[in-house]
Amino acid sequence: MGIVPLERALQLAADVDLDLVEVAPMARPPVCKLMDFGKFKYESALKAREARRNQQQTVIKEMKLRPKIDPHDYETKKGHVVRFLKAGDKVKVTIMFRGREQSRPELGYRLLRRLESEITELGYVEAAPKQDGRNMIMVLAPHRAVKASAVAATASRGAGRERPAEESAAPAASGTPAAGETAAAGETGVTADTGGQ
């Protein structure tokens, strides 16, 4: 459209019943656009909500062990680590040393190496074992294939939950609107009112 004075731009926006929105205020001259601002805000909120739904959050679980752990307790803790890795989560394994155990860090190191060798098909060591005060810490992460299957399983469970919501919306079409539909209509009405101003 080119460079036009502010009064003329406001008049053009009023003629077509749209809003004059400044999209690049730092440009010389400032760049404005004619649009329905309420509809734009609503659509951008929908896109942001969809992006949040699709993003994958990394969860770090922690498993604490002692250097003189009993074999049965070790197997139980290893089972938890395996379950966390299969779910696609990272695992922070902490060996806690007490008293004279601090003078024997090789016991904890050996225990962490044993755990690493027993879960190689599910995950890998993201952070090698290192001494941190009284504790020794190692971080395990799932392999990409394991994480992808965990994400797919979560998505299929999520799809199973959405189906009953669609079925509950079916009776609403025959008679009175459901609560979600009323809210959506209310939002549209607000958008229309904002656009006219």
UniProtKB/TrEMBL annotation:
Protein's cellular compartments: Cytoplasm
Transmembrane segments: none
SUPFAM superfamilies the record matches: Translation initiation factor IF3, C-terminal domain (SSF55200), Translation initiation factor IF3, N-terminal domain (SSF54364)
Gene Ontology cellular component annotations, sorted alphabetically: cytosol; membrane
Membrane as UniProt keyword: no
Domain annotation Translation initiation factor 3 N-terminal: ranges: 1-51
Listed Gene3D superfamilies: Translation initiation factor 3 (IF-3), C-terminal domain, Translation initiation factor 3 (IF-3), N-terminal domain
Entries under InterPro entries matching the protein: T_IF-3_C_sf, T_IF-3_N_sf, Translation_initiation_fac_3, Translation_initiation_fac_3_C, Translation_initiation_fac_3_N
Any one Gene Ontology molecular-function term assigned to this protein's record: ribosome binding
Keyword line: Cytoplasm, Initiation factor, Protein biosynthesis
Record's compositionally biased regions (Low complexity): 167-189
Primary localization class, coarse: cytoplasm
Pfam families: IF3_C, IF3_N
Family statement: Belongs to the IF-3 family.
Assembly behavior: Monomer.
Biological role stated in the UniProt entry: IF-3 binds to the 30S ribosomal subunit and shifts the equilibrium between 70S ribosomes and their 50S and 30S subunits in favor of the free subunits, thus enhancing the availability of 30S subunits on which protein synthesis initiation begins.
Stated name of the protein: Translation initiation factor IF-3
Native source organism of the sequence: Micromonospora carbonacea
Gene name of the record: infC
